[in-house]
Amino acid sequence: MNLGKKILHQLERNLVPILFIFISLVAIPLSGFSAGYLVQEILIRLSRNSFLVLALLIPILAGMGLNFGIVLGAMAGEIGLIFITDWHIAGLQGMFLAMILSIPLSALLGLMTGKILNMAKGREMVTGFILAFFMNGVYQLTVLYGMGSVIPISSSNLVLSRGYGIRNAVNLIGIRQVLDNLIPLQIGSINVPIATFLLITLLCLFVLWFKKTKLGQDMRAVGQDMEVAEASGINVERTRIISIVISTVLAGFGMIIYLQNIGTMNTYNSHEQVGMFSIAAILVGGASVAKAGIKNVFLGVGLFHLMFVVSPMAGKNLIGQAQLGEYFRVFVSYGVISIALVLYALRKRRASAREGQLLADAQGGDE
Amino acid sequence: MKSIIIKSAFFLFIVLIGILLFVTGKTHVILPENKNIELNGHTYKAFSNVELTIDNEKMELYPRDRLKMEVKGQKHVLHFKALKRNGEEVEITTAFKLKLGGNMFLLNIPALAAEDKQWLQEFKLP
User: Fold this and answer.
1) B25 and chain A in contact, CB less than 8 A
2) Of A72, A304, A357, B122, which sits most exposed with the smallest number of CB within 10 A?
């Protein structure tokens, strides 16, 4: 491969991050934000979102693509938060108790998702996407009609005045930023949430360790070729289910970390965009449907949220309307997922065409 | 069999951690008051002034005052210095434990000074 082709190949492989770096380079001066402000915002958003995005890595390893089912884990996390708010559990204890409460629910939802995705092999992403919509309906039914009537919720701050159903907004004042402020570090005017980053580092180490375990290696084998993995004695379906269960449980934890940072839970909407934005972030970081690593997570969250921060102000300064920036960032989230999927399909088609050509050449040579 | 035992032990461990988090993280509202109160046929008069400290949180109460504070966990330490109407000073330090299931508690300082057992009562909103 000559140099020109090599550069072109690298450009094509990293088209999405390059596009985002370019957009950010244009938008940052237009926004007028100071470097300190942007660094602080990116640090906050990295601490808020990284755990959720890291939850996507294991299903990618198992060849199940981008797990839109993390929305289900997010719902389980929210239910844990509703319970601790009702029981008046505050501080780190409240946050960790919400995590423990979310485990059985997210594991069960993960198991269900895994089984359904096994029935829809090859179409995991769209199935997961629709499954998230379906479970959103079940969640809304449970929270709007079940809580306060069938499921005991006594706090008047939570229950709607009619006696059942949870209010639209839940105040998480008891656990607001408890993890972020646990180990405070101030560098100049910038606050660094050390404890949150430590927890994220722990998850990164877990992912790295997990990849080296027998189960991790099995997942990699399943991700590369299911038939070969099956032939070598790996229980493919079980391995795929485990990957989704781990991802869903981690997403539940991620949602709790996300909401402790924000401090308010929008009961019926908080989880809706979580899947979309997390997937967009990892794709922006240069991941593909089949391959993703920890560096993609941090680069993606950083770049994606940098654009989130600067685009409304850049839009306002450019044409006098902040709304344009808002439209722009939503359009880009969906757009980046489309671009990444199209590029992945193109690459896959090109690779199989190349393999076919090589095979034909080899057969021609034999004759 | 070994696998079942390990899984059960892990499950039990998580449940125990959950209980520990519940007990230590549960918040309660305490309503300290400096009011005249009649308990078991005795009347306890409010103090002229009370300097109250619960778990290092200080507050000052005058006659007929009722304040509100939130505490985390069941065990707490209370210290108060009160001035009777005749000028006599009372100072008490005591540790107390709140009922796990209760959300709100009424703490009557004059009853506590008189060592009445009902100085701390669960308070339920009408």
Assistant:
1) yes
2) A357
B18 and chain A in contact, CB less than 8 A: yes
Q: Give the CB-side neighbour count of residue B28, counting CA atoms within 13 A.
A: 28
Q: How many CB atoms within 10 Å of residue A6?
A: 10
Average pLDDT, rounded, for chain A: 91
* Residues 158-197, chain A, touching B (beta carbon < 8 A): 174
Please tell me the number of Cα atoms within 13 Å of A12 on its side-chain side: 12
Please indicate if any CB of chain B lies within 8 Å of the CB of A107. no
Residue B63 lies in a domain: yes
CATH number, domain with residue B83: 2.60.40
Could you read off the pLDDT of A335-349 as tens digits, one per residue? 777 887 788 788 888
Chain B, window 46-85: residues with a beta carbon less than 8 angstroms from a chain A beta carbon: 72
Torsion of CA B120, B121, B122, B123, to 10 degrees: -110
Number of domains in chain B: 1
Q: Quick: pLDDT tens for A146-177.
A: 999 999 998 888 999 999 999 999 999 999 99
**DSSP states of A124-141:** HHHHHHHHHHHHHHHHHH
Nearest to A91 among B25, B28, B103 (CB): B25
How much is the ipTM here? Answer: 0.86
**What is the extent of the structural domain holding B86?**
27-122
- Which residue in chain B is spatially nearest to A103 when comparing CA positions? B14
Residue whose structure tokens are 């902040």: A322
Residue of A nearest to B15 (CA): A100
The whole-angstrom separation of Cα A172 and Cα A169 is 9
